[in-house]
Amino acid sequence: TRYSFGFIFTEVELKPEERKKLLDNHNKYLAAFFDVKEPPTDYELEVLKESNEELKLCEEKGLVSLLINKTKGISSPDKKELLSCLLLVPYAYLFYVGAKKSAVVLFIISSALIFMIMAIKSLIPIPFFIELIIVYICLAGTYVSLTHKLLYLAFKERMKKVENETYEEAKLEKFKSLCPDKDKSQKSYIVSFVCLILICIIASFTFRDSGVFINLVKKGAFQSYPNVTVEELINAAIKKPKWEQIIAKDGNKYVNVSGDMYGMKVLIQFRINDIKGPKGDGPSWTWEVNASELDGQPMSIHGLADDLYQLYMANK
């Protein structure tokens, strides 16, 4: 099988004369770089051919062309590369082929992208399913493109280390010696997955209490207590409150705050209302208490502001 644009798999079967031609002329350095066993399969020969053409194009056009996406870099016949991108750990494959510098660069880019996505999510809440699909497609596509470019740079760097060898056989042997033991490199996948999970946790924790609607509620105040913010009331009443903003199935926007109140689990939900601005030229956001729960049981929201204020005064 082979893939087109990194996602679609189709069968490949070469004619005997085509296979012989490709087998005689395939780039053995690329084969060694990607740990392709001799003799390559039809699929591997086709991918090596495409990568060799891209390699020549990159050499001809230069680094600027690579950076502005005029040339795409090289791709591996090993499906581990594609799977790494689809599993959102593209740097795992780069570590696997020994491209450590490129792997570190992609890890930094990947971490920055995750933090950026979490920051955007905190500002623009969208339904979870849609959010997940959009983020996944964007990340996977970006990772495929970046991995191809970084593989080219890593290959070029390794070729420079052997360019002074006089004989071709010695040059190829030295190149192979620079390639890592793939069996030992398998652990890079485990480490990469752990790093991905840690980055996601840190990013989620960093932006967990932020968001345009969360700040709207936090900085607001109940009409009966205009001099005390909702955040101050909540902090006094609830231990380690957790804030989140959502768009529910009914299409409405909500801010939930939950936590522990004297050994009981409490949840207070605020509904965000959008109204026309004073000149009718844009939305203006307001909020109101929508619901309240205590240990999972619905509670009346009547007098909630008074209850929170009494706890605020008691703990002041």
Q: Please describe the biggest sheet, giving its number of strands, its sense, and whether it closes into a barrel.
A: 5 strands, antiparallel
- Uncertain runs: 1-9
If you compute it from the alpha carbons, what radius of gyration comes out, rounded to the nearest whole angstrom? 28 Å
Rounded mean pLDDT score: 84
Total beta strand runs: 7
Summarize this structure briefly:
With 316 residues, the protein is α+β, with helices and mostly antiparallel strands. Helix content is 56%, strand content 16%.
Task: Please describe what this structure looks like.
- The chain is of the alpha+beta class and 316 residues long.
- It has 14 helices and seven strands.
- The strands form two sheets. Strands 3-4-5-6-7 form a five-stranded antiparallel β-sheet, with helices on one face. Strands 1-2 form a two-stranded antiparallel ribbon.
- Helix 6 packs antiparallel against helix 7 (100-123).
- The N and C termini lie far apart (69 Å).
- The relative contact order is 0.08.
